[in-house]
Write a structure and sequence with these properties.
Length: 662
């Protein structure tokens, strides 16, 4: 009801204002001149009637433009009116506006999510077309809402309304220019990039067609230099066709960001952290400098062990590590080469992949296991529809986007995951990661639509990972996956395995957006896309392309989040945050074990504390949510450094006399 009367009121108000604008224009003689020219041959009465009619029609057009907040003012007259009108707007207008947009968004989101779900589960020309049409529609609505929200910039609104208006102005990931041709083009490019990645395969020299999943397994387990190189190069054949699309997408999205008042898309992405965009970039640098010494120690040790395995001619001790030898297609986490670098006599005492096999855990049982962790903390079980609608295994008969993701289709209870689960320890962690998204989504579902999100995007990525940090030997014994808890003499192994996952990831988590930010700002131009990517890979990670790259190579495109346009700094943040969350939750649970042995399984107090933060959604600046759980308003790498302190001491001993650095 409020929406209906509110709109009526606004229409009348805008109608009056529109007449005022037109009269001003008439006074400035432009419009008057045009009307007079056109009516000069008609008789006076008819001409007057006609003029009045035209004026009214024009006024209605302008009024409708102003009332329908989902349409952006594009004409000069409308823009002028928006500026002169903003003084007259009030907090009540903001309420009407925000309610209207929220209602529209709920509908649009559901429609868009459904189209996207079908497309990602069944990639064809047709589903791509439907998905891009839906995404064009919601992007256009989002851009229009962002433009309309800016009308309240100088209006005295409540703090909650201000936060909601800011969220509307900032949160589009790929804003479109205000031109329907261009927004259609942008949406189509998005779907094309997604399809190129999702359908990507490599046919090896024996004619065998390999999916990314097949290649991921080989990268994880093969120790054959040439076979690894073949996989590494093969997968990167999918991305050269993406380069021109990516170049054009960058142009269009930058134009969209400009239209919303941002210098470029990168600035817009960096504006989502309750601090000035420049401060956020500095914050990342500060956190990275805290972690870098530990990364350097790990890198030095791993390089020397790899050199023992593959020979100094392949892994030189003073050079970056060849990127195909680290157990992962992107060298982003290195847990799969644990066996090559494991400290003597200090293995973790178990291997989750093997234990899953021994206990014959199915994919569904893996998901049930992860769900049980959350319910043990007091969270409600997942709804029946989750089990009916999720995708857990790779279909044999169609193309799907296999990259793991979590969905909330209706902002109520239709939550799902979509994964092509492999039965490995690594995937067991990823399942926890995805369920973390789903439990977060459900925890904030009673917030207003605008606040149905994580405190910042790092939080969303951190929750499931936080839980997975509690997948310790003690926990695995409790659920019957292992029989005995290895004693503490094995802890260096445990920490090494974890560091290969987490510490190794951090510079990668940082460099992906360092690259994109520079692409968006124009510092990196299309001719340099690939070389700049590798410069950053060397600078941050100390890894190098194992072979010279072709002139048309577009290696960033072979990493899911680039064609999918998912910002990546969130994963870097999540790695800092999850160790702070883990430490706080362990404290609440009364843990007395060393932090890397702590599991909050079954602890309702920890669950309650976690939920208090989750249910806030994005209703407060993230610093407030952070404080609720950790007691601090600033992120800090101390928790992750403390966690790995015993390993760092050990690494320093091992590295004595070695030439480190890259
Ligand atoms: N959604 C996860 C990531 O992209 C999936 C994964 O870990 O593979 O963050
Ligand atoms: N899930 C993210 C990725 O796959 C971060 O681990 O890159
Ligand atoms: Zn995620």
């Amino acid at each position: 009801m409020i929406g209906y009367f509110g709109s009526l009121f606004l229409t009348i108000k805008y109608l009056a204002m529109s007449y005022y604008i037109i009269i001003k224009m008439l006074v400035s003689r432009n419009l008057f001149y045009i009307l007079r020219q056109k009516s000069s041959s008609n008789n006076k009465k008819r001409s007057n009637m006609k003029q009045l009619f035209k004026l009214s029609a024009l006024a209605i057009v302008i009024a409708t433009t102003l009332t329908a907040c989902s349409e952006q003012p594009t004409t000069k007259a409308a823009t002028t009116s928006v500026t002169s009108e903003s003084k007259a707007l009030t907090a009540d207008d903001a309420l009407v506006f925000l309610t209207k947009i929220a209602n529209e968004q709920v509908e649009l989101n559901l429609e868009g999510n459904r189209a996207e779900w079908i497309y990602q589960n069944f990639i064809t020309e047709d589903t791509a077309a439907l998905s891009s049409a839906a995404s064009q529609k919601s992007t256009e609505a989002g851009v229009a809402a962002a433009v309309a929200a800016a009308r309240f910039d100088n209006v005295d609104v409540t703090p909650t309304q201000r936060r909601q208006l800011n969220i509307l102005k900032q949160s589009l990931v790929i804003p479109a220019p205000q031109d329907s041709k261009k927004s259609a083009e942008l949406a189509q490019i998005g779907a094309k990039l997604g399809s190129l990645y999702g359908k990507g395969t490599y046919t090896d020299k024996d004619g065998k067609v390999l999916s990314l999943g097949d290649m991921t397994s080989i990268m994880a387990t093969s120790r054959d230099y040439d076979q690894l190189l073949d996989m590494w190069q093969g997968w990167r054949e999918i991305s050269p066709p993406m380069k021109d699309l990516y170049t054009r997408q960058t142009e269009l999205a930058n134009e969209g960001a400009n239209g919303l008042g941002y210098k470029d898309l990168g600035t817009m992405w960096r504006s989502n952290y309750d601090m000035p965009a420049d401060d956020f970039a500095k914050e990342l640098d500060r956190l990275w400098l805290q972690v870098k010494p530990l990364y350097d120690d790990l890198h030095c040790y791993v390089r020397s062990e790899l050199s023992k395995t593959y020979g100094e001619d392949k892994v030189a001790l003073d050079q970056p590590i060849p990127a195909h030898l680290l157990g992962n297609m992107w060298a982003q986490s290195w847990g799969n080469i644990y066996d090559l670098v494991a400290p003597e006599n200090a293995d973790p005492g178990y291997d989750v992949t093997k234990q899953l096999e021994v206990h014959n855990y199915s994919e569904i049982e893996m998901v049930k296991g992860a769900e049980k962790f959350f319910t043990s903390l007091g969270f409600e079980a997942l709804p029946q529809t989750f089990w009916e609608r999720s995708l857990f295994t790779k279909p044999q008969d169609r193309d799907v986007i296999c990259h793991a993701s979590a969905w909330d289709l209706d902002a109520k209870d239709d939550i799902r995951i979509k994964m092509c689960i492999q039965r490995t320890g690594e995937e067991f962690s990823t399942i926890h990661h995805e369920l973390g998204h789903n439990f977060y989504q459900r925890a904030y579902q009673d917030q207003p639509v605008y606040f149905q999100n994580s405190a910042n995007d790092g939080f969303h990525e951190a929750i499931g990972d936080t839980i997975a940090l509690s997948v310790t030997p003690k926990y695995l014994k409790e659920i019957g996956l292992i029989d005995t808890i290895p004693d503490e003499s094995k802890d260096i192994g445990l920490l090494m395995k974890m560091a290969l996952e987490k510490i190794a990831f951090m510079p990668f988590g940082l460099m992906v957006d360092q690259w994109r930010w520079q692409v968006f700002s124009g510092q990196i131009t299309p001719e340099n896309y690939n070389s700049a990517w590798w410069e950053l890979r060397e600078k941050y990670q100390g890894v190098a392309a194992p072979v010279a790259r072709d002139a048309d190579a577009f290696d960033p495109g072979a990493k899911y989040h680039v064609p999918a346009n998912t910002p990546y700094s969130r994963y870097f943040l999540a790695h800092i945050q999850q160790f702070e969350f883990h430490r706080a939750l362990c404290g609440i649970s009364g843990n007395t074990d060393p932090i890397h042995r702590c599991s909050i399984y079954n602890n309702k107090d920890a669950g309650k504390a976690l939920n208090t933060m989750l249910e806030m959604g994005s209703s407060q600046p993230w610093q407030q949510a952070y404080k609720v759980l950790t007691g601090n308003e600033q992120m800090d790498a101390r928790a992750i450094l403390d966690y790995f302190a015993p390993l760092q001491t050990w690494l320093k001993q091992k590295n004595e006399g070695k030439q480190c650095g890259f």
